[in-house]
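Q: I have 65 residues here and want to know how they pack in 3D. Can you give me a structure?
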Amino acid sequence: MTTVADLRTSENRPGLHVTKDDEYTPATGDFYCPCGESGHTNGDANVSSMVAYYTAHKNICGGRK
């Protein structure tokens, strides 16, 4: 069984991870790029902005340290 902890991003598991338990709780998000850049935020609007940032970063980043 996969747990939420298994899906967290890290140096060994780069990517984007967003959670939102239900419509009444704020979203949380994390990202980790192979280049070493990472981020974490809380709140629906902040997570939405982080997803946009990560997507733009991923499109221009070579992914190397």
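Q: Anything worth noting?
A: The chain has one domain: 4-60. The mean pLDDT is 86.
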